Structure to design on (881 residues):
């Protein structure tokens, strides 16, 4: 198995898109002249090309940022195709929304941990369709009824006569029908027939990730390439006012200074000259844009006032029964507030892209790692005012994404294109780590105000959650924001905790408009919501003197999968056992259908305020676990990411400008800070749901709940940094 | 100024200014891009190489310090990508996004070269120099333990 991370030249006109969005009347030109494919390639669909040497090339439609979709999506197709995995080659799909769109978004976009969930059904059908074509061709060739045929990996079998033909042999004479054969649900494999799904394979690009050859955009080398750096306005919306570039221009190797609407670009012959020149620029900025004067500490106070005050404008997110009335008549009412600071993605690869604009400015080659390749093509085409088909796109791996590379403007791609256009030469435009922090787009500040009511029998009868935060999608993706009619999923989804049975529920989005650069980040809205909701549930359980795991159990009792996961993690952690010097905290959520529960063990140093987390136990049920070991890996990853959010990660803004710069003042978790993680994946027969970020939101509340158990003190603000913990403990 | 040094056993030369970080010469002049740029401040370890047999942050090593020295990058760690650490990294399925992993592997190889049977706490201490934002840490420990056992 090899990976082909290259642009695949497929002209749109070569496909005849049928009403079903799929047809076999295609002739894809795949760049398989390499040693692996010695035979002739026969395109059987936009997704599958089988070579006469019996290799099977399968398109992978999602962007790879470490989550494993590059492998797991083609594997799903290969399952129903009954392909021999050792003969499968994975080809990165070209930017083409019509053919390769994520069905959940309507365009090629990898986000929300939904790639497997969203593509699963279609990929199985596409695989089964190609298998049917192969069977039909074999039946005709042997002149036997198709019903007498079966498949084994990469071969069609006629048991009656003992004959077999490899897929490659069939490809040599295959006739491809004009329309795709129908595949009924009942014709798909049953779970017990899976040969690939649920069996771990090694991720296809891993060998290249241990020897330095895995291709990221920052590694691209183009003959004659120059280097670009950009000094941006420290505050969103600011523009260069006075530019003093005398010193920058005097640096050896500097080629051009390029004023831009949002900053000043530098083009140089070497990266060190470009970075030095950027540092040497003296620029004053217009105070245009909304965020000038913004201060995070002050804003949290203002956000809190908006969250608490029912008369302040809010958008109704979800309503069930009448929570306001129920709270008025409740026997007991509990209220709590929770706050969250700005969080930075800190993907390890600082943002960058490479562009090469033609001398006439009428075409562009582009190398980048993005969560939406069709958006990248659009960004480049719009910047140059040329048609998208003039952009030759090269797909690169991402050195981390976490939501940072899924914005409608993909500004770091834009950087490379405009700088290349200024000199009509290839330019690698790179951000330094400081640029990446200063120009970060953050998980927004939020303040959550929650109220709950119990009746006289102690039954939870009302839940009210008001979340004040910036409308992220309005900044990140105005197109999507418009389509959602202003309902901002990234900022608010999940505030209703709809999976908890409460007869009266009110969830309100309290939109703020700070003017800061904001973004989806691992866990999206849930990251902060679940800190609030699961901390609150713990407070309620304690108030009722009910065991926190039992309290949640009662609220999900109609969902056997949820109950199973809660019981499973309790068993793993030996939940009922009291520890000496440490304590456990519990958290659960239903994350887009994935049932997940987590227990954290903490110790607290009262003198320093340092919280340590020696152990974390997690159980999750994501339906069918397509690649079980990768589910474990993604969960480990989610936990570590959640740990940083819980204990350390904090961006502060003053007068609109980010105050942190690099890993010395933005603390991400290191090896000596992470817990021992025990993870159990409970694979069930349900449609697969996400695994890429599901544990992240549970870590902070589990820690806070454990701290409350250990010390009796409730922590209400992330990050739960030593200073804050020390202060809270008094 | 011109600097002559060795990279992966071969003679190398650069005319970059003396204060230029070795990282950029390796990546953009010598085109050995397995060594990564992460922070530029010696805090993340993505740029880790070996200089005269010990690990070093290539982003914190100026060209003036490299003259006459022998540099090993991830590309030169083994001729066939079969260094025990690389094999262990695959066996434990360590990489996710993979961007930090060259530096992680160079750090681990340095540890085992000088301490073939490290304790768990020695592994944790040594490898805490390198950041992995994907949080592959638990597998990194397992992989170093495996490499120590199988080497």
């Amino acid at each position: 198995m090899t990976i082909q991370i290259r642009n695949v030249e497929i002209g749109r006109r070569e496909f005849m898109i049928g009403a079903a969005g799929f047809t076999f009347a295609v002739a894809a030109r795949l760049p398989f002249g390499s040693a692996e494919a010695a035979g002739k390639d026969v395109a059987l669909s936009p997704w599958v090309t089988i070579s006469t040497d019996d290799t099977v090339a399968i398109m992978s439609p999602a962007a790879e940022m470490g989550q494993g979709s590059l492998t797991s999506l083609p594997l799903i197709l290969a399952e129903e195709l009954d392909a021999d995995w050792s003969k499968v080659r994975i080809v990165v799909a070209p930017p083409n929304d019509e053919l390769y769109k994520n069905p959940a978004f309507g365009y090629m976009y990898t986000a929300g941990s939904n790639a497997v969930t969203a593509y699963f059904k279609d990929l199985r059908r596409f695989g089964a369709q190609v298998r049917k074509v192969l069977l039909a061709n074999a039946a005709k060739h042997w002149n036997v009824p198709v019903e007498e045929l079966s498949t084994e990996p990469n071969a069609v079998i006629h048991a009656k006569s003992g004959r077999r033909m490899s897929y490659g042999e069939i490809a040599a004479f295959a006739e491809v029908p004009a329309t795709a054969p129908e595949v009924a649900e009942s014709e798909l494999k049953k779970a017990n027939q899976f040969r690939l799904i649920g069996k771990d394979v090694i991720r296809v690009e891993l060998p290249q990730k241990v020897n330095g050859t895995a291709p990221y955009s920052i590694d691209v080398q183009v003959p004659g390439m120059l280097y670009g750096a950009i000094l941006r306005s420290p505050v969103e919306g600011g523009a260069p006012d006075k530019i003093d570039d005398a010193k920058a221009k005097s640096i050896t190797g500097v080629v051009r200074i390029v004023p831009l609407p949002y900053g000043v670009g530098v083009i140089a012959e070497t990266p060190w000259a470009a970075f030095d020149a950027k540092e040497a620029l003296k620029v004053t900025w217009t105070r245009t844009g909304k965020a000038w004067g913004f201060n995070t500490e002050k804003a949290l106070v203002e956000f809190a006032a908006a969250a608490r005050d029912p008369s302040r404008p809010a958008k109704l997110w979800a309503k069930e029964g009448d929570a306001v009335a129920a709270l008025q008549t409740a026997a007991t009412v509990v209220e709590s507030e929770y706050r969250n600071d700005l969080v930075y993605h800190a993907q390890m690869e600082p943002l960058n892209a490479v562009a090469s604009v033609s001398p006439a400015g009428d075409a562009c080659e582009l190398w980048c790692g993005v969560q939406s390749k069709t958006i990248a093509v659009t960004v480049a085409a719009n910047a140059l005012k040329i048609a998208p088909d003039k952009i030759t796109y090269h797909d690169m791996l991402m050195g981390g994404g976490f939501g940072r590379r899924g914005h409608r403007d993909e500004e770091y791609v834009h950087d490379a294109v405009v700088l290349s256009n200024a000199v009509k030469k290839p330019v690698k435009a790179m951000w330094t780590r400081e640029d990446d922090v200063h120009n970060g787009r953050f998980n927004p500040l939020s303040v959550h105000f929650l109220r709950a009511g119990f009746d006289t029998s102690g039954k939870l009868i009302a839940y009210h959650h008001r979340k004040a935060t910036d409308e992220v999608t309005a900044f990140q993706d105005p197109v999507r924001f418009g389509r959602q009619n202003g309902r901002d999923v990234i900022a608010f989804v999940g505030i209703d905790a709809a999976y908890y049975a409460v007869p009266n529920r009110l969830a309100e989005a309290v939109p703020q408009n700070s003017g800061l650069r904001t973004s989806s980040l691992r866990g999206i809205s849930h990251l902060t919501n679940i800190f609030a909701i699961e901390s609150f549930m713990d407070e309620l359980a304690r108030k009722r003197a009910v065991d926190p795991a039992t309290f949640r159990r009662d609220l999900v009792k109609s969902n056997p999968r949820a109950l199973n996961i809660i019981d499973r993690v309790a068993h793993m952690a030996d939940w009922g056992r009291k520890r000496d010097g440490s304590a456990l905290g519990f958290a659960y959520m239903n994350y887009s259908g994935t049932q997940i529960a987590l227990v954290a063990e903490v110790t607290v140093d009262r003198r320093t305020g340092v919280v340590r987390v020696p152990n974390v136990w997690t159980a999750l049920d994501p339906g069918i676990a397509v690649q079980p070991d990768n589910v474990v890996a993604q969960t480990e990853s989610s936990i570590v990411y959640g740990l940083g959010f819980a204990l350390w990660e904090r961006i502060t803004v003053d007068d609109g400008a980010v105050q942190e710069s690099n890993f010395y003042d933005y603390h991400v978790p290191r090896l000596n800070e992470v817990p021992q993680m025990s993870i159990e994946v409970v694979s069930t027969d349900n449609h697969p749901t996400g695994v890429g970020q599901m544990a992240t939101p549970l870590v902070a509340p589990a820690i806070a709940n454990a701290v409350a158990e250990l010390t009796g003190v409730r922590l209400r603000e992330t990050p739960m940094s030593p200073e804050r913990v020390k202060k809270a403990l008094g | 100024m011109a600097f002559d040094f060795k990279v992966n056993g071969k003679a190398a030369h650069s005319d970059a200014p003396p204060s230029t970080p070795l990282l950029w010469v390796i990546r953009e002049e010598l085109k050995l891009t397995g060594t990564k740029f992460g922070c530029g401040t010696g805090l993340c370890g993505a740029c880790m190489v070996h200089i005269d047999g010990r690990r070093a942050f290539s982003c914190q090593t100026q060209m003036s310090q490299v003259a006459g020295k022998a540099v090993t990058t991830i590309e030169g760690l083994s001729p066939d990508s079969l260094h025990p650490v690389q094999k262990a990294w695959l066996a434990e399925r360590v990489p996710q996004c993979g961007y930090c992993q060259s530096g992680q592997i160079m750090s681990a190889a340095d540890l085992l070269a000088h301490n073939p049977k490290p304790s768990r706490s020695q592994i944790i201490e040594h490898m805490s120099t390198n950041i992995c934002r994907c949080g592959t840490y638990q597998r990194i420990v397992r992989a170093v333990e495996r490499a120590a056992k199988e080497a």
About this structure: The mean pLDDT of chain B is 97. The radius of gyration of chain B is 15 Å. The beta strands of chain B are 3-7, 10-14, 48-51, 54-57, 70-72. Chain B has two domains: 3-76, 84-150.
